[in-house]
Write a structure and sequence with these properties.
single chain; 241 residues; mainly alpha; Rossmann fold; 3 domains; 3-stranded parallel beta sheet; two-stranded antiparallel sheet; 11 helices; extended
């Protein structure tokens, strides 16, 4: 099955029948006005909407028709999307550039689930790490886990780029209402030194925790900012190498 997935991934999308049909369809609908689409179909607002996990998605206010959706589904079928989804849940190595499994599903799987990679169920490993993370976060928030000088941590700065920045930022923005307002959370992704300086302005190094978020720890921007953070901490705490 893994070999089949790899062949599908290499097939050019633009050569597919559904892709060409979508291109022709686009030329027909690109000048349509939403006012006319709603006038021709008063139920459009109800039909072109869905809900899931507490999120309401209204896609009626886009220049699309029922035929658009039909062609998009056809493209997904021609591309073998369901085959790849099934392979992902089986733990197959569908990331063909890195030759590794794509384990987003394992991160979201309940404790009793099983997702095997190279013969091993990775779900227990995932939950073991999640529990360690939860325990550490609770210790930081409660003040039990302290900084180098014994002071309580009040500032948490995430260093990352791409998904390692956008993911934490999204989680923070979504859950900020429930956060401890006595703590400050910041994010550094720009390799321009000004970005780092602005985030740590007026912060006490003794009360600051940096989280370096990276998959490989080889990304130049992330490691540059991590070294900057290390130097800032050493200078502020009178430390040495």
């Amino acid at each position: 099955m893994a070999a089949d997935v790899q062949v599908i991934a290499k097939d050019a999308q633009t050569k597919r029948k559904a892709w060409k049909a979508l291109e022709a369809h686009y030329r027909r609908v690109r000048e349509l006005h939403l006012r006319n689409l709603f006038a021709d179909d008063p139920t459009r607002g109800e039909r072109m909407a869905t809900q899931g996990a507490g999120v309401h998605l209204d896609y009626s206010k886009n220049r699309i028709t029922d035929q658009t959706l039909k062609l998009l589904v056809q493209l997904a079928e021609e591309s073998g999307l369901q085959t790849r989804i099934d392979a992902m849940f089986r733990g197959e190595k569908i990331n063909i550039t890195e030759k590794r499994a794509v384990l987003h599903v394992a991160l979201r799987a309940p404790k009793g689930a099983s997702i095997f990679v190279d013969g091993a169920n990775v779900v227990p490993q995932v939950h073991a790490v999640l529990e360690r993370m939860s325990h550490f976060c609770n210790r930081v928030r409660s003040g039990e886990w302290k900084g180098h000088t014994g002071k309580r941590i009040r500032n948490v700065i995430n260093i990352g780029i791409g998904g390692s920045d956008l993911g934490p930022v999204m989680a923070y923005e979504a859950l900020r209402h429930y956060s401890d307002r006595s703590m400050m959370f910041g994010f550094v992704s720009n390799v321009d030194g000004t970005a780092f300086v602005e985030v740590v302005r007026d912060l006490d190094p003794a009360e600051t925790l940096f989280i370096v978020s990276s998959k490989t720890f080889t990304t130049i921007e992330t490691m540059t900012n991590a070294r900057t953070a290390r130097s800032w901490l050493l200078a502020g705490l009178n430390g040495d190498e």
